Prior knowledge:
Organism (chains A, B, C, D): Kribbella pratensis
Region (Disordered) (chains A, B, C, D): 232-251
Oligomer: homotetramer
Structural class of chain A: alpha/beta
Domain ThuA-like (chains A, B, C, D): 11-228
Radius of gyration of chain A: 19 Å
Number of helices of chain A: 7
Pfam family, one (chains A, B, C, D): ThuA
Protein name (chains A, B, C, D): Trehalose utilization protein
CATH superfamily of the domain at 9-121 and 189-228 in chain A: Class I glutamine amidotransferase (GATase) domain
Strand order of the largest sheet of chain A: 2-1-3-4-9-8-7-5-6
Amino acid sequence: MTExxxxxxxxxxxxxxVHEGRDESVRKVYPxxxxxxxxxxxxxxxxxxxxxRTAWLQQDEHGLTEEVLxxxxxxxxxxxxxxxDVDDAIVDRVQQHVLxxxxxxxxxxxxxxxxxxxxxxxxxxxxxRAENDRELIWTVAAGHxxxxxxxxxxxxxxxxxxxELFDIPQPDELVFVSSFSGGEVFRSGCCYRRGQGxxxxxxxxxxxxxxxxxxxxxxxxxxxAKWAAPTSPRQLPTVHHRKNPGWFEKA
Amino acid sequence: MTExxxxxxxxxxxxxxVHEGRDESVRKVYPxxxxxxxxxxxxxxxxxxxxxRTAWLQQDEHGLTEEVLxxxxxxxxxxxxxxxDVDDAIVDRVQQHVLxxxxxxxxxxxxxxxxxxxxxxxxxxxxxRAENDRELIWTVAAGHxxxxxxxxxxxxxxxxxxxELFDIPQPDELVFVSSFSGGEVFRSGCCYRRGQGxxxxxxxxxxxxxxxxxxxxxxxxxxxAKWAAPTSPRQLPTVHHRKNPGWFEKA
Amino acid sequence: MTExxxxxxxxxxxxxxVHEGRDESVRKVYPxxxxxxxxxxxxxxxxxxxxxRTAWLQQDEHGLTEEVLxxxxxxxxxxxxxxxDVDDAIVDRVQQHVLxxxxxxxxxxxxxxxxxxxxxxxxxxxxxRAENDRELIWTVAAGHxxxxxxxxxxxxxxxxxxxELFDIPQPDELVFVSSFSGGEVFRSGCCYRRGQGxxxxxxxxxxxxxxxxxxxxxxxxxxxAKWAAPTSPRQLPTVHHRKNPGWFEKA
Amino acid sequence: MTExxxxxxxxxxxxxxVHEGRDESVRKVYPxxxxxxxxxxxxxxxxxxxxxRTAWLQQDEHGLTEEVLxxxxxxxxxxxxxxxDVDDAIVDRVQQHVLxxxxxxxxxxxxxxxxxxxxxxxxxxxxxRAENDRELIWTVAAGHxxxxxxxxxxxxxxxxxxxELFDIPQPDELVFVSSFSGGEVFRSGCCYRRGQGxxxxxxxxxxxxxxxxxxxxxxxxxxxAKWAAPTSPRQLPTVHHRKNPGWFEKA
Lengths: 251, 251, 251, 251
């Protein structure tokens, strides 16, 4: 996979791929599926700096075999209608890889994915409304690499609304806050470290709206992929029995 | 001061007291001055749990003598038109008390006060507009004591707008986020620890609007006073030359 | 339970209660069991401010029925040898109560309890050695209520060593850091908010050492109980479908 | 400066350069001065990825003219004996550049430099002892880029001791914690964001010890330089009067 692009970030774009199959409205917005749209966007934005593949729910092991994950620097996750269909063993496997250093970008309704809830430890619940709200995304972390080149605010003309209270641990870094035409606010770009891995939650992307076709949204996901890529060798934190090395002793 | 109310929180409400003297519009909204309005609100909300005094810019030493500060658990600060007239020596004195454990509640345009900038280390700049925006204040920290009993959202019908990017260090705890009728957002309730002291920044309260008459706003300031009160004896962190106590030794 | 002590903090001290039954060495240190020792310490330190009960693994539902948890402000948890014997359904129940506002104090080897791992989302692994190390516990959060009245450092003459890297999310507040006679360090007092609840991890307390008989250790657990007690009504964060209230509209 | 190394990080290594002139003991350890030693180490570790210059107290404007700072991505700062001799106007200038995006690495006794205190807002006081302690530096942030390739622990055979309580704001990310032969601990690698800039405090480096000759210490400073380099165009956060763009309106 990496022959042509030494040093490129290896991204696997995971899609639930349910709405695309059953909802005509979604097929119209995303004729190539949501995951292929996101994958194409990353290739477009990052060029030689990235190698992108896709995987989806209906594949064997949801396309997330040990081999695929070991060959993935950053995994993006979009799910909504079928969180419950994701195999717990695969969720555990993904978590092990995140804690070992693989980056994870949780997109929109992935706030309720098993993997995100498992990494957060909270309910991850929120308020919502699907009525063509306008969303404004404001940068609140000056100079953060994920916000690089993004307008202030970024305007998404039509989106589902997600509102506070978003039941997540306080982010290690809060990058974006959204407001909606109903006046609601939402912490829409949230950075976490978990184990050796980095996790970024990014709010926009309901299946009924063309959000992932919007260049600035694509740019944020590309920026996040660069931010989330590991800088150290992958390694799961484990227990060690440590002998006293004898540097110091009780006096 | 504390004879009648053993264990009461001793609050000093500091007011710049400039607009009240020169602007008819402000006098109409705050005929008793802004600081007396805030002081009365704290007495009303906290009853026997608080002892409140006021101090203002035009007093000797701005009313913030060593004796007053030593007898103050929590200081609230409102300033806007005359930040530059505050004596640097008094600012240093207030900072020493905050770092020793005195709580500080910085209100609205106090984001540009010398004391707040000094404690933050950043420009504390922001975007603004004074055109009767409606402000919605949303709680983003579930169960935080400063948000206790506050509606979600708290609606302020008319206020000045403050928008991001608010150039502050990332808050230790972010409690409130506001949105405005122009679609802007703002981190409007921010908790910090500095030295032994706790600092809370609370956004609303432009002099032209009756914000400090609003019971929910008063409740937040009362909650914050309880949160910011010291729980340990006051003590300024200082350098100590520490002898090796001989617990451990180099082997 | 609360008739006699209006406003008292209701603490449930949970013990695994396995070592006490099978290990003569532990019975000698804790003839009344570890959980009864901790419970007595809390009663001693907090007096009328607390009502304490105990519960343990071998009871029906591990003593943690819905009724008990609903009547508990703060739950302390000690486990080591039998983490796997704790029923997943009970763990889920405890988690729901924490996210609703119940405080949780995870003690020592509870770093590997199901409930702590579930709330953290990481492996919670660490380094260790059980060879009578001396532990020094240093306060790094000036003026924090959990450190109130605690010597700097607090010296524990003999303890198991826990060393970094401790695989936890970065604490919302880091209160204590320990060093050991082997030169290792450990983040030994860690505060988190999860949902509406507060979580405190406190390192010392291996079953082979008399740590929970030491007054300063007891004081820290008492301080933590006060810190972790909820200040708002208990409520699990949940999803709400929010109608547009019409404050603002798309122009 | 950047002709030969397009994309290289431009580092300015600033030295107080007082001990080197007056203390024979320091000259023996650092015959080329401390700042030239650090500069050479960065060139050695980062090669083509860096362009390094030096500046020092005794130069005009301490060598930190507007031109130099505008051409600097990351500034490292070592000072100890002459903090008071640094011109306040230069400190303000450096602060403006940090808040605009220039990285700052504060080394050892720079905890008491005017620039570090100004960015922190606290006393930055600590405990100390200069008696050839052994220091162990432990990584507590798994997979952090500043810790990449660093042994766990990193052992420094002889150093001055710095102990808690270190009066700093809680770091945005805590990377390293040290222990000393006297049993003391210290948060020895601390990351902050201030404005658009990144600040890293790194503890070791007393003038009497050969710390900056140690390859692992050099590697940490090199890692920090990469971490602290700006990723966005330099820009000082400033106040903007924002007109209502008319996206939303009060209903």
